[in-house]
Amino acid sequence: METHKNMLTEPIIDMYNVCIRYGKDPDVLKDIKLTLQKGSFHFLTGKSGAGKTSLLSMMYLALKPSAGTVTIFGSNIGYASRDAMAALRRRIGVVFQDFRLLEHLSAYDNVAIPLRIRGMGENEIKKRVKELLSWVELDKSMDKICSTLSGGEKQRVAIARAVINRPEILLADEPTGNVDNDIAVKLMKLFIELNKLGTTVVIATHSKELIAEYNYPQIHLENKGLKIIPALRRVQQ
Fold first, then answer.
1. To 10 degrees, the CA torsion angle through 100, 104, 107, 111?
2. How far apart are CA 129 and CA 82, in angstroms?
3. N or C: which end of the chain has fewer CB within 10 A?
4. How is residue 235 annotated by DSSP?
5. What is the mean pLDDT of the chain?
């Protein structure tokens, strides 16, 4: 019974005494301790150069710590094999600041990629992709090649691709940075609905307005370290 209880309360992301450095350069982050529970929602904040991208890179398993331990889904990534890392990544959705779309494919095909990797049938893929692209107001652009889309449209395609698989963790780097306010509100509603379904959400942002409006706790990076800034009031969803 005690084992079952521990399994239920095990953090989805746990970092202990983590340092990140590149080559012989000074530490970007140092002695980081961070525990995120399943179903939590945090903004990731800090000045440019504070290490937000490096921290996100560890969370989506593109970067291993220079020192310390990072455990995700109960697995220490320092000892995980390449196949194990690939399996863990499939449980994580990522919205990159530079989008990383396959520019020669359509918006539809970019969003469908995670579902095709899963082996889902094309009829179900068509239903899910069309529904999601309609939600982010791209239903009239789903057949357009991504290289022809605007920055804001590419942003929405990248977000749709990240969430289509209903990931257990969603990491987003400035996801509302290239869209107007109405679309930003829709995207935040999408993230909040995913969170209600159990997805752990971390959104990196510089937007003071976004932080004030939704008021989730912040993972704040400063002076190579980290602190949690709690939400000041109850979030209305």
1. -60
2. 29
3. N
4. P
5. 89
Any domain includes 141: yes
Of 13, 15, 49, nearest to 224 by C-alpha is 49
Q: Which of these, 232, 237, 195, lies nearest to 215 by C-alpha position?
A: 232
pLDDT at 236: 53
pLDDT digits (tens, 9 = 90+) for 44-73: 999 988 999 999 999 999 988 999 999 999
Contacts (Cβ under 8 Å, ≥6 apart) of 178: 151, 152, 154, 155
Q: Give domain status of residue 234, yes or no.
A: no
Q: Which domain, by its residues, includes 131?
A: 104-160
Structure-token match 């008021």, residue found: 215
168 domain-assigned: no
> Do the Cβ atoms of 129 and 142 come closer than 8 Å?
yes
Confidence of residue 106 (pLDDT cuts 50, 70, 90): very high
pTM: 0.88
Q: Contact at 8 Å (CB) between 33 and 88?
A: no
Question: Rounded CA gap, 159 and 190, in Å?
Answer: 10
Q: How far is the C-alpha of 236 from the C-alpha of 215, rounded, in Å?
A: 9
Q: How confident is the model at residue 24 (pLDDT cuts 50, 70, 90)?
A: confident
**For the chain, how many structural domains are there in total?**
1
Residue type, 15: M
**Interatomic CA distance for residues 33 and 18, integer angstroms:** 7
Contacts of 215 (CB under 8 A, 6+ apart): 231, 232, 233, 235
